[in-house]
Amino acid sequence: MAVEKKVKDPEREKRKFQSAKDMRELMTAYYTEAKVAEVDGSKKIAWITSGGPVEPLHAMDVIPIYPENHSAMLGASKMSVELCEVAEEMGYSRDLCSYFRADIGSAVTKKSPIPGALPKPDFLVASNNICGTVTKWYEVLSRFFEVPLFLIDTPFIHGEVTKQSQRYVEAQMEEYIEFLEENCNQKFDRDRFGEVANMAVKGVALWEDVLATCENKPSPMSCFDAFFFIGPIVTLRGTEKCNEFYKKLVSELKERIENNISAVPNEKIRLLWDNIPIWTRLRDRSELFASHNACLVADTYTNAWARSKINTDDPVKGLANALHNVYLNIDFQQMIEEVKVLVKRFSADGFVIHSNRSCKPYSLGQFDMAKIIQEEMDIPTLIIEADQTDDRVFSEEQTKTRVEAFIETITDKAS
Amino acid sequence: MGREEALKKIRDIVNDPVGSVKKFKDNEKKPVFSYFCTYTPEEIIHAAGGIPFRIMGETKSVERADSHLQSYSCSLVRTGLDMALLGRLDFIEGTVFPHTCDSIQRLSDIWKANAKYPYHTDIVLPVKLNTKSARNYLIEELEAFKESLEKHLSVKITDEKLQESIKLYNKMRENLARLYKIKRDAQKSQQLILASDVNNCVKAAMYIPVEEHNKLMDELLDNLDEGSNIDDNNIDKNKSDDRPRVIFSGTLCVFPEILDYVEEAGGVVVGDDMCTGYRYFATKVDESNNNPIDAISDRIIKRPICAAKHNPDFDRGSFLKGLSKDANADGVVFLLLKFCDPHSFDYPYLVESLKEIEIPSILIEAEMDNPALGQVQTRIEAFVEMIRENK
Ligand code: SF4
Ligand code: SF4
Asked: Could you tell me if B82 and B62 are in contact, meaning their C-beta atoms sit under 8 angstroms apart?
């Protein structure tokens, strides 16, 4: 079998993103502000789940912190396994989501690429619109930090949103506002919130524009880049800074298209990715695919952030609705429909599915999904068994062999 | 019918749930509605003229489900789907999926796409149980379920019917509670009933029509009461009972032999916080409430919670400590299905809580299709020995 060659790209410099530096600065400033607030108490800090309602926090001047994002960082910096092991020593099963294990491991040991680890929360906000795991995870955090937890319970959508579940989520938005008022000792300013919601809508639209540039052939960026650039739309959604950043990124991407700079030098194969990235192997994966002239042009994960739009006529209700309808909160028949749209929009030649041991709501059902997409869209599918941040369940050799076989199938099909 | 005969009947039901419920279905000409989780409002199914039947998977290797479900989903989900794919459930009218965990949630999707029964519904119960809005939602969701059954079966579920069903189910709950009390308080010399048989009695309630269960339990309990003399002063109080007393906590127990291992090693099982045990029958529906759906919702909120629910007003650690104290327990066996997220999350906290009252525990993770029972037995023996020495 051929040994993978690290293709030295002579134009590598040219392909580097200007925005990468901006983004690092943006994220560093964000974490620095939070660390300062932790010490001087100038602002309240809330830990929140990735699907949670962050806009009201910005409206209340609370700094939102995303443990999931941090766990991804722990994965990318190869610290996650060690921290998962800490959690396992505490009695947490190795079968639990590795984001959680890495997070609690970091909270206990204070180990993190961020000096002193994440700033301690004043309170916690969780929404189970992404999984049941976060409900339990935040219960653990609530006991660990001895701080209050507000859970926004968003009933799963089998088929259609029911009237009763809509009412329930809306009622909880009002309860959430009360919770915030109590924990911040401050009235909730609905006008200010309206402004934040507007800003968030614009941010989401910009993020959509970012991803849409990948419809171009060749694609100016790959989903590996998108995984990196997703930070602000998750953490800073609803702020001016977030939107500024994406405006610049969109222009940079458009420039790349004009100058014919593509993510993969000689793009021949376009692929769609499903599930959370394998953060510990991002670089390797990206290079492995690129070495076969294959570009992962889109993915269900970063696109999930482009679909939750708040109706700003009544932003509180609008936010409730947006939360309720996120990608992981809908049944897989509906997910399949969305995947089909992505396949068409991004002209994908194949579908790469990450069966992610950590994330059951994302992964269970993928076998059926693969079959249906393969049949109905007539494109090959590949299932990779791995984990988002627990590198111990990854088999390099096996993955490589399977990716190669998969690429071959696509190539044969094209010729 | 004597005690042995009643117990044998119950054992037969548990050994062949599918065969047993089919017989009732054929005799009574009633549709069977299967379900996975004890939060299912059985009374509503019963009042609609159906037989509720809990799917607990099967303790054998998976044949077909592996091409639909990853190996990291729990064995209940995998073996349950296997039953459907193998046609073992072809006699059912349909399935009811109350919202439990991420795995069940996706199983519902897969089930719907691959196991085609005439009826399929999701009762998306609230996860949160401590607020007024959650309560309202729960009531509306149960109303919607009621309507969907009415429509499917072209029947009317009147309040009167529901109230009758509630009475029957409350009777079942009372019976099981009485059985638990007898078991808990029995002296060593009495050897009234094995732990596995107690467990079988609970499970049988999930498999056969409630009326039949009530009949069987009446027989059994009359017999047991006779031999138990629980409230009688005749018990030789001096005869000290030195058996280590053990409680189980966790998901569902599909291997009753595991309970017997405790007793074979000289211990006694005196209670549990399991969904094939106490959690299933604890808390009755308030019969004096003349809005039956409201009353059923109330029970769902008030019963001891499962790890998959969120209720800041109900602390599972304190609850387990309370159970242990009431039963005078010496040790706790955590029995979890491997890959069960909600329960695995609670486990370290529950162990900590027990440490506060100096109760030791062990963890057993079982897979239905690969139980490794020999190893389990050895570990339980060692545990019972350890707590005996601690006593
Ligand atoms: S990775 Fe999946 S299980 Fe883990 S927190 Fe995210 S959505 Fe939940
Ligand atoms: S055993 Fe656990 S993971 Fe399996 S269905 Fe029940 S709650 Fe879900």
From this structure: yes
Say yes or no: CB of residue B101 within 6 Å of ligand 2.
yes
Pick among B95, B96, B106, B314 to test the A interface (most A CBs inside 10 A): B106
ipTM of the complex: 0.95
Fold observed for domain B17-157+240-391: Rossmann fold (3.40.50)
All structural domains of chain B with their residue ranges? 17-157+240-391
pTM of the model: 0.95
Chain A, window 285-314: residues with a beta carbon less than 8 angstroms from a chain B beta carbon: none
**CATH pick for A17-414 out of 3.40.50.970, 3.40.50.11900, 3.40.190.10, 3.40.640.10:** 3.40.50.11900
Nearest ligand, CA A75: 1
Q: What is chain B's pLDDT, residue by residue, as a tens digit (391 residues)?
A: 788 899 999 999 999 999 999 999 999 999 999 999 999 999 999 999 999 999 999 888 999 999 999 999 999 999 999 999 999 999 999 999 999 999 999 999 999 999 989 999 999 999 999 999 999 999 999 999 999 999 999 999 999 999 999 999 999 999 999 999 999 998 887 778 999 999 999 999 999 999 999 999 999 998 887 655 544 444 444 456 889 999 999 998 888 899 999 999 999 999 999 999 999 999 999 999 999 999 999 999 999 999 999 999 999 999 999 999 999 999 999 999 999 999 999 999 999 999 999 999 999 998 888 888 999 999 999 999 999 998 7
Give the count of Cβ contacts less than 8 A between chain A and B. 135
b/e map B215-251, b = 16+ CB within 10 Å: ebbebbbebbeeebebeeeebeeeeeeebbbbbbbbb
* Ligand 1 cavity residues, CB under 6 Å: A 68, 97, 99, 130-131, 133-134, 276, 358-359, 361-362
Question: Do A67 and A106 contact (CB within 8 A), yes or no?
Answer: no
**Is the Cβ atom of B56 under 6 angstroms away from ligand 2?**
no
Rounded to a whole number of angstroms, the distance from the CA of B42 to the nearest CA of chain A is 21
How much is the CA Rg of chain B, to the nearest whole Å?
20
